[in-house]
Amino acid sequence: MSALALMWHQYRFERRMFWRNPSSAFFNFLVPLAFLVLVAAVFSDRPGELEVLVPGIAGLSIVTTTFTALAFNVTFLREQGILKRIRGLPVPGVSYLGGVLASAVTNAVVQVALVVVIGHVAYGVTWPRDPLALAAFTALGVLCFGALGVAFSHAIPNFDAAAAYVNAVFLPIIFISGVFYSTRSLPRPLEAAAEVLPLKHVIDGLAGALVRGEGLATNGTALAVVAAWTVAGLVLAVRGFRWE
After folding, report:
1. How many domains does one find in the chain?
2. Which pLDDT belongs to residue 142?
3. CA-CA distance, 221 to 227, in Å (whole number)?
4. How many other CB atoms sit within 10 Å of the CB of residue 88?
5. Is the pLDDT of residue 21 over 90?
6. Is a pLDDT exceeding 90 seen at residue 185?
7. DSSP characters for the chain?
8. Is a pLDDT exceeding 80 seen at residue 123?
9. In the predicted model, is pLDDT for residue 228 greater than 90?
10. What pLDDT score was predicted for residue 18?
11. Do 242 and 78 touch, CB atoms closer than 8 A?
12. Domain range spanning residue 11?
């Protein structure tokens, strides 16, 4: 079989395994949607806040399905010796890793679509005003945080420490990057820190596409920052990856 056909088989296997693991499916897939419903209920009579929240939750969805999920999963597979055994099989590494990453991409795309639909139907947020920019920032965000998740897994010493390591990065980032409120309300040092990190810029790009009708050119700075983090993440992910 070709490498592409093997990747497709691996992708289908990853999809079945994902839905057969209820805890993983809940945390990585349903938690952002629960945040959307719960927090939006508080701001249901404040359209301006909802226009900040919906792009923020879309950005959160991308992070949970890529960075968080891959950091956990790659660490688990490595520490349990599963990657080592897969390396010994006549399956190209690109087919295996491509299937794993494609499954994470599927989760992210489905979640962003659900957030957009729920935001419009339930809370009156407009349909995407620039679908091309929405697709571009979603794709780049998925690639960026997917690469960073794999790269970060190299720093996790064992699976028992994975939750502490991942949450030490995940929780501060979502609270300073404008997931639940505008970063303009943050103290200046925290706002400056958010400007350096990629999640704020992914959310800005999604907000521009969803709410303000801004194209890629208008959000060129955000695009450049996320692209720079993507390159750094890919380099670190590839150079630090190990099968055992």
Report:
1. 1
2. 92
3. 10
4. 9
5. no
6. no
7. --HHHHHHHHHHHHHHHHHT-HHHHIIIIIHHHHHHHHHHHHTTT-HHHHHHHHHHHHHHHHHIIIIIHHHHHHHHHHHTTHHHHHHTSSS-HHHHHHHHHHHHHHHHHHHHHHHHHHHHHHH-PPPPS-HHHHHHHHHHHHHHHHHHHHHHHTT--SGGGHHHHHHHHHHHHHHHTTSSS-GGGS-HHHHHHHHHSHHHHHHHHHHIIIII---TTTTHHHHHHHHHHHHHHHHHHHHH----
8. no
9. yes
10. 81
11. yes
12. 3-240
What pLDDT, on a 0 to 100 scale, did the predictor assign at position 164? Answer: 92
The first and second tokens of residue 171, run together, are 């929780």
Which two structure tokens, joined as six digits, stand for 9?
Answer: 């088989």
- The amino acid that residue 237 corresponds to is A
Q: Locate 139 and state its tokens.
A: 């794709």
Residue 209, both tokens: 């596409």
